[in-house]
Amino acid sequence: MDCKTASPSYVYFSELSKSQQPQGRPPFKILLAFSGLQHNLPKSRGYNMRVFECKEAARALLCASGSEDAPILRKVDPGVYEAQKCILDENLAKRAEHYFSEMKRVVKGREAWARGDLQELGQLISASGRSSIVNYECGSKEMIQLYEILLKAPGVLGARFSGAGFRGCCLAIVESDRAEEAAAYVGAEYERSQPELVSKIPADRRVLVCEPGDSAQVILQS
């Protein structure tokens, strides 16, 4: 989905890669690993502050370029960002770097998906997760632990938070034939790190192995 134009485009996973799999099955599965965190952190560390900082970064960059557009980072041309990013203070610079590097990862990820290149796609997903921690500075201690455990799991190609990283779960793409092994590894390692949190999650919901489904569809009514 192009957020500027609200126009969708359909990018199909490489037919060549699909045809090389037994019985045409996709070569990957999706892991959902639950942290056990269900409540937001204090507002001072929350997502709303990050949104505010992105607006302030956009305001500074647009002002420096002479633009009177609304302070939204998608209104900032990437060339303007590269030319003017030196004016941003440390926090705003990190937020803007996350946004613009994430834009690049989306484009590269789209291309990797179309080629069926799961290795590159996984690396981009993991880089997104790392930027969320380092540049966007979100994610609780527990969620970061879970993310790092996923990266070490056998067969995992890439991992990141499923959302802002303050609660909920992390997700990963994993080689199909190693999905169960990876799930067992993640469950055991996270329980070792956070036994109290894990004890509150039903055993059959701690790490889920999911099959990829069809993409989003446009439903037309006659």
Core attributes:
222 residues; alpha+beta; Alpha-Beta Plaits; 2 domains; 4-stranded antiparallel β-sheet; 8 helices; globular
List the helices and strands and how they pair.
Blueprint: H1 15-19, E1 28-34, H2 47-64, H3 78-84, H4 90-115, H5 118-134, H6 141-152, E2 156-161, E3 169-175, H7 179-193, H8 195-199, E4 207-210
Antiparallel strand pairs: 1-3, 1-4, 2-3
Helix pairs in contact: 2-4, 4-5, 6-7
Structural account:
The chain has a four-stranded antiparallel sheet with strand order 2-3-1-4. The mean pLDDT is 89. It is globular. Helices cover 47% and strands 11% of the residues. The protein has 222 residues and is an alpha+beta fold. A hairpin with a 7-residue loop joins strand 2 (156-161) and strand 3. Helix 2 crosses helix 4 (90-115), helix 4 (90-115) runs antiparallel to helix 5 and helix 6 runs antiparallel to helix 7. It has helices at 15-19, 47-64, 78-84, 90-115, 118-134, 141-152, 179-193, 195-199, and strands at 28-34, 156-161, 169-175, 207-210. The protein has two domains: 19-44 and 138-214, Alpha-Beta Plaits (2-Layer Sandwich); 47-137, Alpha-Beta Plaits (2-Layer Sandwich). This is GHMP kinase C-terminal domain-containing protein. It comes from Aegilops tauschii subsp. strangulata (Goatgrass). GO terms for molecular function: ATP binding; kinase activity; metal ion binding.
